[in-house]
Amino acid sequence: MLVGAFACAHTPQLIARPASEDRELVLRVHAAFARVRRRLAMLRPDAIAVVAGDHVEAFFLDAVPALAVYAGAEAAGAFGPYRYRFPVHEPLARAVVEQGIERGFDLLYTQGAPLDYAFFVPLHFTMPEPAVPILPLHVNVYLPPQPTPRRCHAWGQALGQILGARPERVVLMASGGMSHYPGTDRYASPDFDWDRRILDTLRDGRGAELAALTGEELDKAGNVELRTWITVLGAVGAAKAELYCYEPSWHHGNAVVEWAV
Amino acid sequence: MNEMHYRFPPAAAYPLNRCLYALKSDDAFRARFLADAKAAMAEHGLDADAQAALLAADRDALVARGAHPYLVFMADLRVRMARGTGTFEYF
User: Which of A61, A82, A124 sits opposite B17 (nearest CB)?
Assistant: First the structure.
């Protein structure tokens, strides 16, 4: 069953802070992560299914899946000085692959691809004690052509049904967003107004409207990663979002959100 | 202004993107790059112009040659982290 749903920023400056970043802002985002961690302890999940956009780490141009499921025994990766490894909830992973394909989603699965920091950063700050297994769910956000928002939403709806019928207590966590333009000449000019409009929509429980966005709109708003949120929105339906924080830095709209499910 | 920030990577830029990916994600390759950048770039068959753009960390020139902007961004960050030129507070 689905017992909780969250969305968390994962920008690397939150874990490896250079001098360019406002320390107080970073700590405020950490405080929101700590709140998620406390909520996870209360929700007692058997697994955390993380929907993240791979930063061309697990999947380079040799093979670019639109949607993928990590179905190995454990998932491991590295970022800077960090080396991380998480047990994977294998029965849940297998069920998601099998039933996802049965429902018409031509999923790629992997049992060994490296785990990107998009998965690691939120888990580093929010994993409760004792730690629980994870289920990494990939959505291609950076290598065009990406899956459409409508497809991501449909996949989230299927995920919600698959997880809802399982005996395990599962939390869904979207990793990514909001507005930022890494590597482009717009890096220092995120679209915070766009973010705030989206957050208003989510607080009203109208997240399904995001399925109608186009890939061009997401790219223009610096929100290619919002596909991970839209996937989770497919699973949470009309639940209203509670905003834990929205912290706009000089290059990034850092948001942490919970949907009561 | 209809240009997308993230565009389909042209096939001709595959060696350049492969080199950026290795700088980002392959610790051993990054170490070889830091020790001898030209030799490391030659492993990926980069031409002289691409080598010059990468050595200068010239984002616009790299992107104009088909490099993926995210790979340019993170390859540069990882090289700076490895060089220890910036100070980072690790949480």
Answer: A61
